[in-house]
Amino acid sequence: MDEVVITRKNRITIISINRPDVRNAVNYKTSKILEKAMLEFNLDNAQHIAIITGTGGNFSAGADLSDAQKMSGEVLNKYGPMGFTRMAFQKPVIAAVEGYCVAGGLEMALAADIRIAAGTAKLGFLERRFGVPLIDGGTQRLPHIIGMGRALDLILTGKVISADEAYRIGLVNYLTDEGKTLEKAVEIAMLIDSFPWTTVVNDRLALIQGISENPDNGLRLEAEFGKKTIESGIVKDGAEKFMSGSGRHGKRE
What we know:
The chain is of the alpha/beta class and 253 residues long. The protein contains 10 helices and 9 strands. The chain has 2 domains: 4-193, 2-enoyl-CoA Hydratase, Chain A, domain 1 (Alpha-Beta Complex), CATH 3.90.226; 197-250.
């Protein structure tokens, strides 16, 4: 059985962790497959959006502690122990979360731009009880997403929260019925992919690269990315489209 299943739908790459017998916990071998799959997506100009998900009704229970020795040796891995959480993605990534999304699994979901969860999903840092540290970006990303106070609560207590609670605090962007997260993720990916792509990519990078800068530097970065977009000719094309009457009043063509 393949530990990771990769499928493509037009310009969307779907990467599914496939170890349902251990709630898609990631061992060393799986982390290396994830690393390769995400690198290939990042470098493939024909693929615009990645969806990370899990099979068998769970997203991921995090690192497979039965392989703890090998996984511990990956702490300083360039791309993170789980395979991709330190990767600088040049394009959007969506997490489709069913069932358990805990420990390193939650850190993988945090590495995505958008998180979609089934109403029955459970999220939390369960590694707290085993003394396993957050080393796949959780301490750095979570405060940006839900604020320092809520992030500290989740990290320090190791409590599990429901999908409803995760949605309420902004950890999850969309809620679906059980078994429907991948369908919703593809829907959102197709929506994003329908927009002029240069603008999508540059606006995303302006946010990601500018969020930790002071306001002056952030605004400069935004302007530089905006200039690249304008110079590509895409804005001129969009203006002509608008003047012809296309896409007005919020209508999609």
